[in-house]
Amino acid sequence: MEKLFTSYTVGDTTIQTRIVMAPMTRSRAREGDIADNLTAKYYRQRASAGLIVSEGSQISVQGQGYLFTPGIYSAAQVEGWKKTTQAVHQAGGKIFIQLWHVGRISHVSLQKNGAAPVSSVAVRAENSTCYARDENGIAGPVPVSFPRALSAKEIGLVIQDYVQAAENAIEAGFDGVEIHAANGYLLEQFINGALNTRSDEYGGERIENRLRFVLEVTDAVSRAIGGGKTGIRLAPFGRLFDMHAFSGEEQTWLTLAEELTTRRLAYVHLSDQQTLGEQAIPEGFIEKFRKAYSGSLIIAGGFDKQRAEIYLQEGKADLIAFGRPYIANPDLTERMKNNWPLNEVNRATMYGGAEEGYTDYPFWPDTTA
Questions:
Q1: CA distance linking residue 88 with residue 68, whole number of Å
Q2: Which of 42, 185, 267, 326 is catalytic?
Q3: Which of 166, 160, 186, 161 is nearest to 178 (CA)?
Q4: Sign of CA dihedral 71, 23, 236, 125
Q5: Checking DSSP bridges between strand 19-21 and strand 319-322, what pairing results, if any?
Q6: Structural domains in the chain plus CATH codes
Q7: Distances 269 to 21, 169, 281, 293, 345 between C-alpha atoms, Å
Q8: Which cofactor does it need (predicted)?
Q9: Closest CA relative to residue 107, chosen from 61, 140, 146
Q10: Is residue 81 within 8 Å of 99, Cβ to Cβ?
Q11: Residue 146 per-residue DSSP state
Q12: Which candidate, 220, 159, 147, places its Cα nearest to that of 184?
């Protein structure tokens, strides 16, 4: 029997299929970084996914690295997101929000009073850009700014920002939150041993020190809203935004897996970056992670229906996340279930703009695919 279209309980939430819509930045928030009616329409169209994980939503001004992304730290942003959660729930769907702090992948034009972005250490991400304003105020890709290292006291303040954002998310009607600890952003900037050379309790050679920040965030969010409403996204062996290999890399991720098992979270979400042009998760690692982590596991990374079913049948994952196919196919669940052809993504309209390439992709049978 196919497992992809069976129901599943993930933390406190029961979903109707094992299909997850992966978080994807679309950069269409309006002034004030507020999710609006168009955002609600976009997610409502995709509500037949078993679970939607929203685009990354910055937890503070400091946490933003891209223009036009919707935040979750102000009252107006909470009200804006309510339109989305209500629309998704009215359509029978479930939705978590991804809590985002980009760390050093930012620019002074996005920061309060032009401050430097923050990271684990004062090391700039080479050959990396964010989406901000250049010296002429023109929006577009710009090289990231030189960061400064967070102090231990400031780390505590960032943890408070995560907690407040999680509480805001529940107020906004989300079924839960996903902590973004992947893709070279702030939390991974602490996990990665090649970058994090701090000499305090939050860094250095000791694995437990480099994991301290991400686990403190996870624990604080779980206490605030419940472990059953808390998920986390990781990118083992990820190389995005100038992340490099380091000694004890596999053991770092497996130690984190063991630690997360004890937290009884809604899920762990692994992102395989091969579809982003980076190296794939090494062969055999998923099985090792699965052995170390006993909770619900989501995997994302270039899946189609056939490969997703194989992973479920072999017990490599409990749920499968699909990214870009959901951009062009709001009815992706129905298309996979009925083996209908898929629309192709228009890459030119993936980021920014209005309805074109966002809410105007056709449902079957109105497609021309």
A1: 21
A2: 185
A3: 166
A4: negative
A5: parallel
A6: 3-338 (3.20.20.70)
A7: 12, 19, 13, 11, 24
A8: FMN
A9: 146
A10: no
A11: P
A12: 147
pLDDT along the chain (369 residues), means of 10: 93 98 94 96 98 98 97 98 98 98 97 97 96 88 97 98 98 98 97 96 95 98 98 95 94 98 97 77 94 97 94 96 96 96 91 91 78
Is 73 a catalytic site residue? Answer: no
Nearest Cα to Cα of residue 95 among 290, 252, 326, 295:
326
What phi and psi values does residue 156 have, to the nearest 5 degrees? -60, -35
Q: Which 3-state string (H, E, C) describes 206-242?
A: CHHHHHHHHHHHHHHHHHHHCHHHEEEEECCCCCCCC
CA distance 267 to 137: 41
**For residue 261, what pLDDT is reported?**
97
Q: What is the pLDDT of residue 136?
A: 87
> 62, exposed or middle or buried, with CB in 10 Å at 0-12, 13-18, 19+?
buried
Question: 176 near 227, Cβ under 8 Å?
Answer: no
- Structure-token match 């401050």, residue found: 115
The encoded tokens of residue 37 equal 């009616």
The alpha carbon torsion through 275, 142, 150, 23 (nearest 10 deg) reads: -30
Sort residue 68 into left (φ over 0), alpha (ψ -120 to 50) or beta: left
Q: What are phi and psi of 242, to 5 degrees?
A: 65, 35
Query: At CA 233, angle to CA 229 and CA 234, rounded to 5?
Result: 145
- 120 and 101 Cβ atoms separated by less than 8 Å: no
Pick from 145, 116, 118, 115: nearest CA to 129: 145
